[in-house]
Design goal:
- With 209 residues, this protein is an alpha/beta fold.
- It has one domain: Ribonuclease H-like superfamily/Ribonuclease H (Nucleotidyltransferase, domain 5).
- It has seven helices and six strands; from the N terminus they run ββββαβαβααααα.
- A six-stranded mixed β-sheet has the order 1-4-3-2-5-6, sandwiched between helices.
- A hairpin with a 5-residue loop joins strand 3 and strand 4.
- The protein is globular, with a radius of gyration of 17 Å.
- The N and C termini lie far apart (43 Å).
Length: 209
């Protein structure tokens, strides 16, 4: 495994193929308060590229061109958060999208455990470490442990996508999944505009307790 850190933007000419795994690290989990710090990417080849963002400008034309390319599928785990953050700070339309968490929810109905760690352990027998999950991602100098953790969130997404795709086809739920993926940008706009805790499809539209 090779983990390559890029400061500010991807270099020109990197080829991620027709599907790129994407994840983000932020200062926290608030879409109002917290800034995008890192964008992790993988072509599914066992290597990862990590872009440490310039949080003053977010001027990253090569990264934005990759993420905004409609011919490249973007694979996420819990795309709802990442797509919202990337749309907010980079201003990119990330379609088409594949979300392994949504796919898992549609086909792994025998469990309520749909975290990335749960998926990698069950489906590909990889036990991910989450030791660096709570970390200072805004630091100018990232540790090797931080970089390895950030990379691990994208290294296996292609494999998970392929397994979950096969199950979606087996259960005749691929069209449903695609419709869910297509709705993600709208869900993100709702989150960013204040409806993050409201179920707009509920009759009474109450906030969750």
């Amino acid at each position: 495994m090779t983990v390559t850190l890029h400061r500010g933007d991807l270099p020109a000419g990197l080829d991620f193929g027709t599907a790129v795994a994407v994840d983000t690290e932020t200062q926290g989990l608030s879409l109002v308060r917290d800034k995008l710090c890192l964008v992790q990417l993988s072509a599914g080849d066992g290597n990862a590229h990590i872009v440490q963002m310039n949080r003053d400008t977010y001027d990253a034309p090569n990264l934005k061109a990759l993420l905004g390319n409609p011919k490249i599928e973007k694979i996420f785990h819990f795309a709802r958060f990442d797509v919202a953050i990337l749309g907010r700070d980079l201003g990119v339309d990330l379609n088409p999208i594949f979300c392994t968490k949504i796919a898992s929810g549609l086909v792994r109905t025998y469990t309520d455990r749909h975290g990335l760690k749960d998926l990698t352990k069950e489906l590909i027998n990889v036990d991910l470490s989450k030791q660096q999950q709570s970390s200072d991602w805004a630091s100018d100098e990232l540790t090797k442990a931080q970089l390895d953790y950030a990379a691990s969130d994208v290294l296996y997404l292609h494999q998970l996508r392929n397994i979950l795709m096969a199950r979606l086809l087996r259960e005749n739920r691929l069209d449903m999944a695609r419709n869910c993926f297509d709705f993600i940008p709208t869900r993100c706009q709702l989150d960013l505009n204040g409806w993050d805790g409201v179920d707009i499809f509920s009759h009474k539209m109450r906030r969750p307790d």
